[in-house]
Structure formats: C-alpha cells, structure tokens
Design a protein that fits this description.
about 240 residues; five-stranded antiparallel beta sheet; DNA Polymerase III, Chain A, domain 2; alpha+beta; elongated; 4 helices; 2 domains; nine-stranded antiparallel beta sheet
C-alpha cells in the first residue's frame, strides 16, 4: 500500500478532531478511499470519516482492503510536522506505517501498527424528524455560548424555526428562522451533552456548512461535508429532567 497526499491538511485536521474522542482506531483503505468508524470509550458517541481515493495524488493497494490499527495521538504528532506546501506519503510495510513528509527535504517517520479489538459498526442510517443545515461558524458560536452556562443544551425544531438553548443557574438561547438556516422539520426536542458537542463542532475546520439531524429524545447526527470528504458524528441524547 502506498498513498500520497499533495495537500494533507484536511487529513491532519480530521485526525486531530477525532483524536479528542478516540485514541486507538482502525483505518480502512479500499478502492473507494480511506475511511474510519469508531465509538468512544463511553459508548455515547460515534465518529465516521471518508476521504475518497480521488483526493490522493497516488493511491496504490496490494490487496482489496487494508486495515491499519494506529494510535491517533502518535499519528497526529507526525502530521503536525507537515508544514504548508508539504506532501505526505503513507506506506505500510508489514507491521510498520511509514510516513514521509516532503518539502525542502524528505523526512521519514515510522509508527508501529497496533491490534484493535473492536466491532465494525456502520454509521446508522436513521429517519430523522428534523434536519437543519446551518453555517458551521455560527453553529460553533451557539454551542460555545451554551457551554458558558450549562453542561447540556436542548435543540428545538419546528417547521420554520430552530432553537438552541441551555439552562443552569444562568441561561443562553439562540433562535434561527428559515431565513438564517435551511430547516426541514416537524416538531422535535432533544437534549445533548455539551462536552461532546464542543468536540464535534471542531469539524467547522473542514466545512463552512454543517447538517444537524435529530428527533425527539433520539441520537443526533452532525455532518460536515467538503466535496466528497465526509466527517460525521452521532451522539446519544441526554435523557434527564430539565434544569
């Protein structure tokens, strides 16, 4: 297996974002590209990403599919050495992952591959009652506002309205009309942990727009798309009495 990315920034950003949820993962490389599905240790959140083969300058496989067990903190540390304008090569040699960074000079790194004992679960395909497409930076600001006053927030959607609010001793609230967000919705209300949402919204690094899908007291899904690159999160609802 040998892969080359002439612009590895998006891959580096995705690895950095995912590393806040999970540490040891199994990357899959197949003819369609590279993908990952992982569940956090608390079994509360799931993350998925896909980078298509077309994004790689070089994409060679020795077999139909490669599975690569890696420690994301180690991989992230190497990817941080990629400066703007550098290219990245990824090559598997037995139980070693060879990473090459080429800019003014060629630098090589070797990471030991690890065994990952985890079930491969596909990203769930649910029917959601509410789907909201919103500017990623705006959504980030709203989630950060809520984190100032509470550890959880509530999403409320109606046919032409989307509300995010949080209540503790203090409160925060933001309301969007169909002029400010693309809303496809019935009436839905669900509450989620801000500890996880704060990590998810870092996906704004890779996409200007985000798609939030949820239903009453049902897991939500948050998608960030840039062309054919996909970064998605699933989060279980926080079921408890309102503060």
């Amino acid at each position: 297996m040998k892969l080359t990315l002439s612009s590895p920034k998006i891959f580096s950003d995705i690895v950095t974002i995912i590393s806040e949820l999970v540490t040891e993962v199994r990357l899959k490389v197949h003819k369609e590209g590279m993908s990952l599905t992982a569940i956090d240790p608390a079994n509360v959140a799931m993350v998925y990403f896909k980078i298509p083969a077309s994004l790689f300058e070089e994409f060679e496989l020795d077999r139909e599919e490669e599975e690569i067990g890696v420690n994301l903190n180690n991989l992230k540390a190497v990817l941080r050495r990629c400066k703007p304008g550098a290219s990245l090569s990824i090559e598997r040699q037995d139980n070693i992952l060879k990473l090459g960074i080429k800019d003014r000079v060629k630098r090589d790194f070797s990471l030991a591959l690890i065994e990952i004992d985890a079930d491969d679960k596909p990203l769930p395909e649910w029917e959601f009652n509410s789907v909201v497409k919103i500017n990623s930076d705006t959504f980030t600001e709203v989630i950060e506002d809520c984190a100032v006053v509470s550890d959880a927030c509530t999403f409320i959607a109606e046919p032409e309205k989307f509300i995010v609010e949080a209540h503790g001793l203090n409160s925060a609230r933001a309301e969007f009309s169909s002029d400010e967000a693309e809303i496809h919705s019935g009436n839905s209300t669900a509450r989620f942990s801000l500890e996880y949402l704060i990590k998810f919204i870092k996906g704004a690094k890779i996409s200007m727009n985000s798609t939030l899908s949820f239903s009453d007291n049902h897991p939500m899904r948050l998608d960030f798309h840039t062309g054919d690159v996909v970064l998605s999160f699933v989060l279980a609802p926080r079921v408890e009495q309102e503060d």
